[in-house]
Amino acid sequence: MKWGMVIDLQKCTGCGECAAACKLENNVAIVAHKESEMGRTMLWMDMLTIYEGEYPRLRVRQIPRPCMHCDHPPCTKVCPVRATYINEEGIVAQIYPQCIGCRYCMAACPYTVKSFNWYKPSFPPGMARTTNPDVSVRPVGVVEKCTFCIHRLQIAREQAKSEARDLRENDYQPACGASCPTGAIVFGDLENANHQVNRLAHNPRATKLLEDLGTEPKVIYLKEVD
Amino acid sequence: MKLSRREFLQWLGVTGALAGGVSQIWAVPDEWGEKLRSGPRLETWKMSTCGQCPAGCGIRVRLIDDIPVRILGNPIAPVNNGFTCPMGEAGLELLYHPDRIAQPMRRKGKKGENGWEPVSWEDALKQISQALREQGKAKPPGRFGFLMGDRNTLLTEFAGEFAARLGSSHFFPWRAPAVNELGLRQGAGEFPPFAFDLKRTDYLITFGANLLEEPISPVYFNRIYGVLKEERTRTGLKMVHVDARMSQAGRNATEWVQIRPGSMGVLALGLAYVILRDKRYDQDFIARYTQDFRQGGEDFWTLVNRDYSPERVSDITGVPAQTILRLAREFGSAKAPLALSGGTSASSETGLFSQWAVASLNALSGSFSAKGLWRDPALLPWGPSLVSVFSPRTGAFSRKPQNTLGSDLPASWVAEQLPDLAAAGKIPDLEILLIAQVNPVFQASNQKAWKAWLSRIPLVVQFATLVDDTSPHADLVLPLTTYLEQWDLTLPIPNLPFSLLGLQQPIIPPLPGARPLGDILLHLGREAGIDLFPGSGEKPYGEYVQERMKKIFASGKGTPYFEAISLEFLEDLRKRGWQVYSYPAFADFWRLLREKGGWWDPGEYPALDWKGKKKFLFPTAPRLAALLKETSIPRSEGGGEKGAKTPHLWLEEKIRRPNGHDSFILVPFTTLMNMTGDGASQPLLQEMFGLHSRQYWKTWAEMHPERAARLKLKDGDLIRVVSGNGAMTLPVRVVPTVSAEILSVPFGQGHTESGRDANHIGANPIAVLDHRMDPLSGRNSWQSTLVRVEQIKR
Q1: CB-count burial class (<10 Å; 0-12, 13-18, 19+) for B334
Q2: Distance of CA B533 to the CA centre of its chain
Q3: Would you call B551 helix, strand, or coil by DSSP?
Q4: CA–CA dist B635, B417 (Å, integer)
Q5: What is the DSSP string of B559-597?
Q6: Which residues from chain A sit within 8 angstroms of residue B248, using beta carbons?
Q7: Integer Cα distance of B49 and B487 in angstroms
Q8: Closest residue in chain A to residue B224, using alpha carbons only
Q9: Distance CA B367, CA B361 (A)
Q10: Would you place residue B107 in the very low, low, confident or very high pLDDT band (cuts 50, 70, 90)?
Q11: C-alpha angle B728/B734/B737, rounded to 5°?
Q12: Across the interface, do A125 and B98 touch by the CB < 8 Å criterion?
């Protein structure tokens, strides 16, 4: 079993809903304007914008960018305390209590998907109520990133177990995929021939970001053709 | 004791704590914290309809131990099929906002100053109802006005009824026009505009219509665009977006055509010129259903052939003549071409003219006769809604059924001009003005005039969830519930090809201090001697909503939302007498509505049939001249007399060009994160404000690389943008997605009073605009202001 994601850029309209859903689902801290000015905005799902050509042939590519969950992740290799590691299902995970905040992994990640918690989580009175109770809030001084919404996998597994059945394809979908209005984000088991991602990963339009680095990302993009 | 608002809130917090711990300062009751920590963690879901914008998306709220923790889309809501936009997701930040007003406040000191004292609900309501009774006795009556942000819900109609029953025709709804609204109102006499089915077009050209970021229904249109983008690789569908800035609509189109702001109508007539010359027009449709095409004299044919040759159009619009020829030929030869005008096309001094020209492009090219492409919105089973209208001839406001507007305009078009209309004597000196769900001092470009007008009205009452930029100019501020704590119905969404009623129901009871507007109006009405809900005794607004749904139930039409099945299959089932749900009694129907989140008519609107419709009027010089002569909308400059014979040329003079190396046309734009400016109060939306530009929590200015190079500006440099009306300091973003003539600045920041996450962040580009408006529609122009740019040394 190897969890992976396919993002079809021909379907994506760049609405940004994946980024919003991700922030709320995972209680990603909102750092407010002064900290944002210092480049400390935290987005597990970011939106890359690439300009190609010049007007009148200008094309703007918008690329949603989660953690690539590489098969050869550069981040895990540099972690001195094994706070980040790749599990047997291919998810690059993070153990927050183990993280010492050295940020080597942030420097090593070529996709710049990791963010550092510069601040103690604080909420104006009342605002704490908007957090998702399924995901813990990270303490100050640790690195965090997209987890493929692994908590959803745990919930889905428990549900399947209680119903004495195997996990079905749609049981486990990360928040970005589940919230994408155009269905551009597809998630599933890359090794399961019955899963849609498996088929899409072999599409001729399939490509990976910075493939030549040999990181073997498990987020696969389908190129826009027009 | 004179207190500032902040001191007032602090004071409330302190006294609350002293009195035994139930602090009123924060909206969330303290006991919830304990409940969240030690409750049984029971999960429930409730269905409702989003109220962040008028799009009518169904929402599904997750509650843990009855405390809302997340908003997701309702999977069976027909508008959004389970999805939301970032605004929809952020709704709980409004519900739990720490700056929510907790108690009615009365102004202390002068208007514009921010001094408040707390008053009880009883005292505040007594003061309003007394003022309402007194103005009712005055001769002539009508010294009472009601300005209301129209979120396309039943509540707007109810508030209009409230004003009318109190003898006032001065009910002013405030909302952005739908796509094609100005053009089809003028050309076809239609209001609301026809709906359209994007999936049936084979050539889409959008004149400023940014369906992906406009508040009509962004989730719906993002879904459809996703499908169109995928299918166009097989079908060859072309999607052309015409605008000075490449918005999300431009980025997702197959081609973006840069155009000078305000000149979209000229381009449309330029395309018409080529279509006429090539004889590619729909002769049958034109002969049967249109007027003024070619009857002789100053007709459309003459107008277009004389004044809109590609060379001249190219000079005015900046679009190369070759592109005009190509676009016209592509559009003219398509089987189901569709030209839409929205967004920026409506917010210029040539707004109505531009949209009218685009509408005539559809009449010309056979778009209106393409099968199923256009849809005729059916009335709800309870009949036509009454809408507030403005007579351009007399300047008077009144109410009319939505389908019988005659020569009147929807009052929402002129809502921004109320101070000018008052100055021109078209509105009497008001004794009392109620304001709800709108922030005119922030949203209108003539902000000084708004402040002055509000300061002249003896009693200005604002109903609001958060204090906003208008509050300092009010005499009383009363705390409203959010859409998550109240009853309402979202009405059918303009432009969408099906009918629906989205049920808004309280996810939780109103938080302490706040009341729903519907209930306040019912109470005020009873106090003033009118009963808006006859025979109900003291029943609340929620029961009124239920009562209205009884009419829908009795009609037997439509059904509560249901799981998606194909319409063809449904039609087959229906023919066999099958019903989707079984609800023998209203109680069953109501229970299903609450469970499913709304009602809809799964059959799409019937295809547009011009038989029985008024003839489509093509724009002609005499008709434009007559409109300009008759209109009583105040002008920012000399009247249209000099343009009596060539009114179109007079209008074209209003298309601005920069005059110097540091001169730009300032063009504000809106983003999906903050379409009306309200989003700035919600931290999630602030953090995602400029997601695509990587600009968060700020305002920036977008400039074309060539212009930036000439001004020796680099990405991130600070610039000072100076207009005749003010100045603002912003970082510059050097991007190829704007035309070289414009400086594009996002709207939404620059609040002075809108909660802690909005205040004193960024700048409001609307505040520095020159006050210019479209003399034919009354809409403020966002594209008429020339600014100079100066570099600021860091």
Answers
A1: buried
A2: 28
A3: helix
A4: 10
A5: EE------HHHHHHHHHTT--SS--SSHHHHHHHHHHH-
A6: 13-15
A7: 10
A8: A182
A9: 8
A10: very high
A11: 105
A12: yes
Which residues of chain A are within 8 Å of residue B79 when distances are taken between CB atoms? none
The model's pLDDT over B129-154, given as tens digits with 9 standing for 90+, comes to 999 988 878 777 668 999 999 999 99
- The mean pLDDT value for A24-48 works out to 90
Residue-level length of chain B? 794
Domains by residue range for chain B, with CATH: 3-95 (2.20.25.90), 119-176+385-530 (3.40.50.740), 181-377+612-619 (3.40.228.10), 547-597 (no CATH), 653-792 (2.40.40.20)
Inter-residue contact A219 to A66 (CB < 8 Å): yes
**B223 contacts in A (CB within 8 Å)?**
181-182
C-alpha distances in angstroms, B691 versus A27, B239, B410, B697? 18, 24, 35, 10
Residue A52's closest chain B neighbor by CA? B736
Residue of B691, B749, B760 for testing the chain A interface, max A β-carbons within 10 Å: B691
Contact A24 B229 (CB under 8 A): no
Contact list in B for residue A179 (CB cut-off 8 A) is 72-73, 83-84, 89
Percent of chain B with pLDDT over 90: 78
Check whether domain A3-222 has CATH 3.30.70.20, yes or no = yes
3 state SS of B390: strand
Q: Chain B: residue nearest A223 by CA?
A: B230
CA distance B65 to B2: 41
List chain A residues with CB under 8 Å of B36.
129, 133
CA distance B394 to B392: 6
Residue A46: in which H helix or E strand, if any? strand A46-52
How confident is residue B793, by pLDDT bands cut at 50, 70 and 90? Answer: confident
Q: Residue B403: exposed, middle, or buried by beta-carbon count in 10 A (0-12, 13-18, 19+)? A: middle
A84 to chain B, minimum CA–CA distance in Å? 27
Q: What is the mean pLDDT of residues B703-711?
A: 97
What mean pLDDT comes out for the span B605-611?
93
